[in-house]
């Protein structure tokens, strides 16, 4: 009697994809720290720093999103963690864009919604990077 099992295909992101994905975390985290500094000091320059860091995070996340979409299109099985990773990355990018629009306001009008959005986007970026940089499986039920 022979037993045949489906192989577990592990797919790690390419080096460029990994750099772009990992780069989103410090950029969005830096924006969060800038928002916290602005909340505590009222120095308007911290909002400018946050806006630029969010723009960089959006650029990196957008390019990583393109890589994730291309990987999903090429995948044999389009379900499970790769789809969850793509959706989570898309949600991170969309909320980051809303955060960028929020940071386009003048001075204190950014607070507290900009700070709350920065917290949410930073947490999502960390979760997405953790999920994306771990081994994605396209086979099996894990």
From TrEMBL:
* Keywords assigned: Membrane, Transmembrane, Transmembrane helix
Segments traversing the membrane = 16-37, 49-70, 82-101, 107-133
Question: Carries keyword Membrane?
Answer: yes
Keyword Electron transport belongs to the record: no
One Pfam family, please name it. Answer: DUF2231
Q: In what residue span(s) does the DUF2231 domain sit?
A: 14-133
Q: What is this protein called?
A: Uncharacterized membrane protein
Q: Which organism is it from?
A: Phytopseudomonas punonensis
């Amino acid at each position: 009697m022979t037993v045949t099992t489906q192989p577990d295909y592990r797919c790690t992101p390419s080096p460029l994809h990994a750099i772009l994905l990992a780069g989103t975390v410090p950029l969005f985290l830096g924006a969060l720290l800038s928002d916290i500094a602005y909340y505590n000091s009222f120095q308007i320059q911290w909002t400018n720093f946050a806006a630029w860091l969010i723009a960089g995070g959006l650029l990196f996340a957008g390019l990583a999103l393109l890589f994730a979409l291309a990987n999903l299109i090429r995948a044999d099985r389009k379900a499970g963690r790769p789809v969850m990773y793509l959706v989570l990355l898309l949600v991170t990018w969309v909320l980051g864009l809303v955060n960028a629009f929020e940071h386009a306001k003048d001075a204190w009008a950014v607070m507290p919604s900009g700070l709350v959005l920065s917290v949410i986007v930073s947490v999502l970026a960390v979760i997405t990077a953790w999920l994306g940089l771990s081994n994605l499986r396209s086979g099996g039920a894990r």
